[in-house]
Amino acid sequence: MGKRVFIIVMDSMGIGELPDAGLFGDEGSNTLGAIRDHENFFCPTLKSLGLFNIEGVGGGVQHPLGSFARLAEKSMGKDTTIGHWEIAGLISPKPLPTYPDGFPDDVIREFEERTGRKVLCNKPYSGTDVIRDYGREHVETGALIVYTSADSVFQIAAHEDVVPVPELYKICETAREMLQGEHGVGRVIARPFTGEWPYTRTANRHDFSLVPPGDTMLDLLNEAGYDTLSVGKIYDIFAGKSVSEMNRIKNNHDGMLKTLEMADRDFNGLCFVNLVDFDMVYGHRNDVAGYARAMTEFDRDLSALLPKLRDEDLLIITADHGCDPATPSTDHSREYVPMLLYGKHIKAGTDLKTRGTFADISATVLAYFGVSPGDSGGTEFLSESVTEAGKLPESALSDDDLMQIAEEMRKRSYAPYSHYTVGAALLTTEGKVYTGCNIENAAFTPTVCAERTAFFKAVSEGERNFAKLAIAGGREGETSDFCSPCGVCRQVMAEFCAPDFILVLGSVRGHKEYRLSEVLPFMFTNKEL
Questions:
Q1: Rounded Cα gap, residues 306 and 45, in angstroms
Q2: Half-sphere exposure of 243 (CA within 13 A, CB side)
Q3: Does domain 399-528 have CATH number 3.90.650.10?
Q4: Does residue 169 contact residue 190 with C-beta atoms inside 8 Å?
Q5: CB atoms within 10 A of CB 197
Q6: What's the confidence (pLDDT) of residue 429?
Q7: Can you list the positions of beta strands (E) in 283-365?
Q8: Which residues neighbour 199 within 8 Å (Cβ) at sequence distance 6 or greater?
Q9: What is the 3-state secondary structure (H, E, C) of 100-142?
Q10: Which member of 65, 278, 300, 410 has the lowest number of beta carbons within 10 Å of its beta carbon?
């Protein structure tokens, strides 16, 4: 089996304004900061990997499981295309053209002549608002709705009953052919919609990107004989150049399901993933609650990916720009982005500081595969992150870290009868964390404790080796100094854990370790059967 690298781009997950944010009108933008305190946000997996240990973020754990860094964008832009190109090692010193007043008359005239259809709108617009305001006229006349945004895009919206999707794609290809050079926008985007007014956009969006003007990480890996698999709109962003396999997705969750499928496969090379819902569905619509919920869903899917990673695999989690849903703007924001690096041979807790370009990711991936980075402006950080002689990292989450996660899980408890809330954080010997909260029922027999919830989640994912369990509990609104597992939960632990399995009991104010044999002496296990 070959080496594998997974890069997951959380599209638009910025972590704070860049020093030059003022040039882009983005002072004060912080996408993660806008959602992290929302009740829908709960990301213990990302937290355990080191997301909140990154410089400028705050609230990290004592012993993160991954290496981490804050990346600044060196390219002059804040859009998806330039951001991904830089991740792949291609820095853009000039921004792609944008059209705050709409496209020039000569561009629209040539487009109408080539397509045989008139144009409506031709100004910056929200994708949902534009079909509301121009959709009826489009349906009546057949004229195409052309609009743009603060990004370098030429977007074409059409009703699928008026302009069938294949025809819309051909129209976009025509636009892509003519929009080169001075008017070489980053993307021409097909935006089909359907139904009756006020209409609904469909999942048949398709991006027709500008071909990267130089070699990227994908080109160099492809030339060296490595697989280059794409999930989501990676294929579109790079105009299909040097992508050996394309996998389209319906949404973020579908993207992660496709990534899980990739993790079960034998391949030798890169799996490059883009999760666009963060940006398209929530960031641009200023939906703080939705963005927070989407991050929680991603964190849950991410927890399912980690156990599938093999000894030689690398996982890199990053972003391409920001899109702060809490600012008045609905456009992208010029922000730092996170970088989390995880693998069995990666030094846990390595702070790779703030780095000057996204291209450091490309340089690191190419270094891992032994491929020359060519003219890439990036600097690899693999040599700073790998353990000596491939030795597995020994550090893991501390008791304080686990207790903090357990306390956060208490907030999710459903205890309307006893009003006694409990959260649990179960650490495996591989460093993965499974969480649980107590869930009561009007009939007490079906009630499930937090501890068993965490164990059942882990066991259902194939886990069998556990290191310790933190338990936090108490009456609603109170912080108890001690919460002991019930007898049923102790019996479940006896089924799956050795007598020296560690229980961390207490609270964030103070806690103590106990061995399972201390809280359940004379255990009756499957050995007695």
A1: 9
A2: 23
A3: no
A4: yes
A5: 9
A6: 78
A7: 314-318, 337-342, 351-355
A8: 131, 132, 135, 159, 193
A9: CCCCCHHHHHHHHHHHCCCEEEEEECCHHHHHHHHHHHHHHHC
A10: 300
Cis peptide before 198 (omega within 30 of 0): yes
Structure tokens at 109: 């005239």
CATH number for the domain formed by residue range(s) 105-209: 3.30.70.1250
Q: Are strands 314-318 and 245-247 parallel, antiparallel or unpaired?
A: unpaired
Q: pLDDT tens, 328-378?
A: 999 999 999 999 999 988 988 999 999 999 999 999 999 999 999 877 779
Taking alpha carbons only, the member of 460, 408, 461, 397 closest to residue 436 is 408
* Pair of tokens at residue 329: 């703007």
Are the C-beta atoms of 393 and 423 separated by less than 8 Å?
A: no
Mean pLDDT of the chain, nearest integer: 92
Write down the pTM of the prediction. Answer: 0.81
Contact between 239 and 210 under an 8 Å Cβ cutoff? The reply is yes
Superfamily of domain 4-92+224-312+324-389: Alkaline Phosphatase, subunit A (3.40.720.10)
Tell me which residue of 478, 411, 397 sits closest to 450, measured CA to CA. Answer: 411
Tokens 């804040």 locate to 78
The domain spans of the chain are: 4-92+224-312+324-389, 105-209, 399-528
pLDDT band at 1, cuts 50/70/90? low
* Structure-token pair, residue 199: 């209409």
- Backbone phi, psi, residue 472, to 5°: -125, 135
Residue 317 pLDDT greater than 70, yes or no? yes
3-state percent helix, strand, coil for the chain, nearest multiple of 5? 35, 25, 45
